[in-house]
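=== Structure Prediction Worksheet ===
Name of assembly: unnamed complex
Input type: mixed (protein and possibly other molecules)
Chain count: two
Listed entries:
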Amino acid sequence: MDKREAQTEQDTGFYVKHKKVYPREVHGLFANLRVTGVLVLLGAYYLVPWLRWEGKQAVLFDLPNRRFYIFDLTFWPQDFFYLAVLLIIAALALFFFTALAGRLWCGYACPQTVWTEVFLWIERKIEGDRNKQIKLDKAPLTNTKFWRKFTKHFIWLSFSAWTGFTFVGYFTPITELGHSLVQLALGPWEWFWIIFYSFATYGNAGWMREQVCIYMCPYARFQSAMFDNNTLVISYDQMRGEPRGSRKKSDDIKVKGLGDCVDCTMCVQVCPTGIDIREGLQYQCIGCAACIDVCNEVMQKVGYAPNLIKYTTQNAIDGIKTRVLRPRVVIYFLILLGMSIALFYSMATRVPLELNIIRDRNALYRTTPLGYIENIYTLKIANKDTVAHRYTLSIETPFKSKLILRDTDIKVEPGQSGVVSASIQADPVDLHKLSDEVKFTLQSIDKPELKVVDEGVFIGPRR
Amino acid sequence: MSSGWSLYIIIITLVNILGCLWLIVWTTKKRTGEAKQGEVTGHIWDGDLQEYNNPLPRWWLWLFIITIIFAFAYLFYYPGLGNYAGSGGWSQRVQYEEEMSAAKANYDPLFVAYAQKPIPELAKDKLAMESGHRLFLNYCAACHGSDAGGSPGFPNLTDGIWLYGGDPDTIKTTILDGRMGVMPPMGAGLNETQLNDLTAYVISLSGRDATAIGRVDEGKKEFANLCVACHGADGKGNMAAGFPNLTDNDWLYGGTPGAIKQTLTQGRNGNMPAHREFLGEEKVHLLAAYIYSLNQ
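=== Predicted Assembly ===
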């Protein structure tokens, strides 16, 4: 034991020196699933800002102007309701998938996993697999080592910079952003976010990796609250594997009294969080199933049945009858389905027009020289469509009334909000209540399906 | 803040920060009998809930130290330690002024361009009038109503009846410098009958029948005594000085006999505030054009 190791051994207060994890490369069903996830998710991330739709960037979140373009849809800040619903759906999806099969999100879809996977791939291409990496890190600094490391970090940083650039491309038109970047003529916030996001990517996927999941991520911790004994988890079959031990091909394992685990420690070597799955379910396990893939490979080589490590439930391990499709999962799924349908329906029937009636509050009502009672309203009309429209305004009141508009030609440019002052006039003898509800209907002349209704209040004198 | 309070806050702030630093250093020290990494600490809750010692990586400790360094840097740059103003010179007022001047630089060219155009021409510019409408809603609608139709005490700006005149320059002057309209109270010098008579006469000026309210002829005498100086012998007022015309049956404070009598008895004070300093001449120009456009 050298001096440094002795130091680490004693280092057992609230803090310890971090030990780097060198996950070994793995192939197999679940690795393929994860690579598919990486390609689809990152592919979408890097490509979407470049898509064009009707002459504009297809997906653009224009923060300064508060307009959010997603293909045919233009969202305004008033539409944040949809974002809330979307987040509820995302939360329900997390509940559903976690209750069903544990940390699926962590293992296959989380940005931390997805980007780390790419960084690991780059690292392996340059430094080689696990053993070579460990050797390289222990070796003294030579020219070769320096250039290996330099190349790795250079590629990491370039990839991160592209990631940061793409991120800002969702908020600033990406082609213009590219031109400005080439000329180094970006605004301060664009610089800040490109650099910030680049370093976040480089730091999280290059250096922090599993530490983000273990020490920082709140999801990692609260997902365990959705586990129960029927949740699919990655688990080592202790009954079958133990007692573990190495053996020769000629050995009779019955005689030696050994289980199926050959103690090759491959499952530990591939683990991105550096745990030993054979010790049971641990909070560090991100559910990536790398140990399943590698163990199956080993089992095949030694000629044993596969799935010594597999997706199974706590009940199955304990020999109790297990049911994966239990009420909890079904209910989560039904709510998830209901919310998704509601969101799609609401989006499909969304009218890109908004009317807000704001009643004047400086006076309850006004008496005209001829004795009529008048209430004054400000109408805010938001045209969320991509073309200008002319509108007609009509009212529906429980008493005889007259709508007075200074300018009957109501026209609002696309993506703009118009302000119209209007008043409603009534003969006091027709008013039977202190206040009545009045309905304002705004309808487009050129496109009658654009129609919205808003309610206001008409206040008259005490009788 | 008095220097005593200032000192109190400085001490509390510094003691807290240094206390945090002490706590961080104190917790890093290993103690005898402490559970080793990965072992159970021996603390048990709810019968079976146990705590492991799962230590944080050491670099995490540096994050804590960095927050403390950040705290000191922050307190050096920004005002935070009692009366100390901070080296950066930041204050709410400075920030407000910076933001206002940035907004001015952004929007002023638009208003300057509008201010070059004469009001009658500007009043025909639809886009300009949309801006004017927004300005009106912000600065005028609270009193005059969002349709500029006014309410008791606040003139209707759409009916073509003006107290001070409706030509472009007069409208602009009214907004720029404000107006003070004072009707002095007459109640002290007149008895009830005389007040009724005067009310009857004032109502009759608009061609309304007022015989049930008082003696119009007697009221006319009172009027000649007390009112002609301002409202003129024919009751048509004087627009140059803002004395209202009493013959047009348009009443700023209400045209019922009771309201008119109240006006006579108690007087009225109309106050249109000046906007020269507050809005600046360019915006007032646009507003004047908007109000002018309402009467075209």
